[in-house]
Write a structure and sequence with these properties.
The protein is of the alpha/beta class. It has one domain. It contains seven helices and 22 strands.
């Protein structure tokens, strides 16, 4: 599909509402069209901004990472491979598209440009983002860290990312997104496309912290080839206006695997519509979608999970656990299983409940107040343990979630 074809398809979908989530008037925001400026080093970033990015897992010291990417709105960008890490490439999308003609073949391949008005507008307006690639056979042990920050009022951060783990490679990414609390009525449009080639491993961990007047509309998808592994972990532990996201993973090669994990801590009047879909399209593919939701105050959480079995000898599981901390809050679990081939084994389990009286009584008998006991239960509930991740990466995830959660309890 040529660039002109993509533009035409985007134009045709400019008014197409999303299948899920509240509709947003995209014309009420400002779109930045200026050329981005490069940040030469982390030293150019203010101490306040460094403190903000720490809350979503970005380490300004850059001591235990292989590369860093940082973007403020669509204007100031840092892209830096810190070590002489052979086989790793981190570029801005604008730079990568100029450098590699073949990258056009990946642009809008996993995520169709005409999914809805948000993908359409993302293509039609100026965008940037990151291109991260692990070349064939490269084992990138330490994670790449990336961070997307929104600071402008009444504006849109328009991002398109492409991540490629080439054949036999290994790549781990920690991605943080954040908005200072004083930012008003902002919109994040984030398109991310993941390509996991034969025998490759890719893990992608997201920790997000938005402001109460921010709407978020990510659109992401992954294509996993033979014996490839894709692990996605998502944590959102702060209030926002609304978010709607439904990442889709296609397991197209025999033996491909994908696990999707999400944790949502709902507060205030925030609306969260979070989901995930696994499409098992080849024999011996397998995976799971696991979500944990905590709803407090007057928050509303919809947890979706779809498993689609299109080939025999496939297996997938859906687990959704919800914890209500307020009588004014709402959690809705929406599981869906669709088998279209004999031998597709799909299962699901969903539970929603309140903090158990026995748990509270036990902890309070140990000297904790009811508030302290509830807080302890919540902290245990939101732990994100991802099997198969390097120990150093798991520690980074734990630290990021702890820091993000401290602002909400």
């Amino acid at each position: 599909m040529t660039s002109d074809d993509k533009k035409k398809r985007a134009e045709s979908a400019k008014a197409k509402q999303a299948q899920y989530g509240d509709d947003i008037d995209l014309d009420s925001y400002e779109y930045t069209s200026s050329e981005p400026s490069k940040i030469e080093s982390i030293d150019d970033v203010s101490s306040a901004d460094q403190s903000l990015v720490k809350q979503v897992g970005f380490d300004p010291s850059q001591e235990k990472v292989s590369a860093s990417f940082m973007q403020f709105d669509t204007e100031s960008i840092l892209a830096d491979v810190l070590l002489s890490q052979e086989g790793l490439e981190v570029l801005t999308m604008s730079q990568a598209l100029k450098q590699y003609d073949w990258l056009q073949n990946y642009l809008w391949k996993a995520v169709p440009v005409d999914v809805d008005k948000y993908t359409a507008r993302s293509e039609l307006e100026t965008y940037n983002g990151y291109f991260i690639r692990a070349k064939a056979g490269a084992k990138i042990g330490m994670p790449v860290q990336s961070c997307l920050i929104m600071k402008k009022n009444q504006s849109v951060q328009n991002v398109h990312n492409i991540i490629i783990a080439e054949e036999g490679s290994e790549l781990h990414i920690i991605n943080g997104c954040a908005t200072p609390s004083e930012v008003e009525q902002s919109l994040h449009l984030g398109v991310s496309e993941f390509y996991v080639k034969k025998n490759a491993q890719l893990s992608f961990t997201m920790v997000h912290r938005w402001s109460e007047k921010t709407d978020v509309r990510p659109r992401s998808a992954a294509i996993v080839e033979e014996n490839g592994t894709y692990i996605s972990s998502y944590a959102l532990l702060s209030p926002l206006k609304s978010i709607q996201t439904f990442p889709k993973v296609r397991l197209v090669g025999s033996g491909a695997k994908s696990d999707l994990y999400s944790i949502v801590y709902g507060t205030k009047k925030s609306k969260y519509d979070i989901g995930g879909l696994l499409s098992l399209e080849a024999p011996r593919t397998n995976g799971k979608v696991i979500s944990r939701s905590i709803a407090t105050d007057s928050s509303e959480i919809i947890a979706r999970g779809d498993l689609v079995g299109l080939s025999g000898q496939t297996k997938a599981r859906l687990e959704c656990d919800g914890l209500l901390i307020s009588d004014s809050a709402v959690i809705r679990a929406v599981p869906m299983l669709l088998a279209r081939a004999e031998g597709a084994e799909l299962s699901h389990e969903a539970t929603v409940g309140k903090v158990g009286a026995e748990q509270l009584s036990y902890l309070m008998s140990r000297g904790l107040t009811e508030e302290e006991a509830t807080s302890l239960i919540i902290r245990g509930f939101v732990k994100l343990k991802v099997p198969g991740l390097p120990e150093a990466l798991q520690r980074s995830i734990d630290a990021a979630i702890k820091m993000s959660l401290e602002g909400g309890l």
